[in-house]
Specification:
The chain is mainly α. The chain has helices spanning 6-24, 39-78, 83-90, 104-124, 131-138, 149-166, 179-202. The protein has one domain. It starts with 5 loop residues before the first helix and ends with a helix.
Amino acid sequence: MTRTGPKAELAALKRSVKELEAKFLTPHLGAPALHQPTRTEELDIAAFVVLVHGVLENFVEGLALWLLSKAVENWTNKKRTTRCTVSLLLYQPSPSGDAPVGAIYDNLRLALDEANEAHSKSIEGNNGITPRHLRSLFYPLGVDLPADPVLTSSLDLVVKMRHQWAHQFRYGAKVVKSAADAQVAVLDCLKYAENLSARVAAVRP
């Protein structure tokens, strides 16, 4: 049985990043160079950044889906609510006056089922890791995002570098970074991920 949850998602993220770094960055990490990265280094950095962006996206979606499923499961099976449950319902439209009235348990269960379906689609349709994307994933689940400006800036840098390679510099100026720069930025992203994972775990869904 595959384990899920914040610890498992974070461990999978770290394994993937370590593997990608060994493949694409390690050959270019040595003594500081005074010249611009070679074309080979640029292409390896591009591959690294695009793939890391993908595993970060998978990580945040995995966290959100786990938290969502736990919130629904805990009410359905244990009649237990948390900040996650309350926030999720606050982000959903109020039921119409024509909605059938039943027991409180059933009313909340049906409301959570609707919220689960709507937010699951939002998570599955997610295609980014910018603060805007992350707010749409985690605010409805009662999770505040890490606010460290250094870590957020590094996340923005990875997004910008991925964007320029994915769109072949069609939008905005080219960002030239060395393998060492990319390594530092992604290490900051892992610190951001650790912080976010801890916040999700602390919600205790």
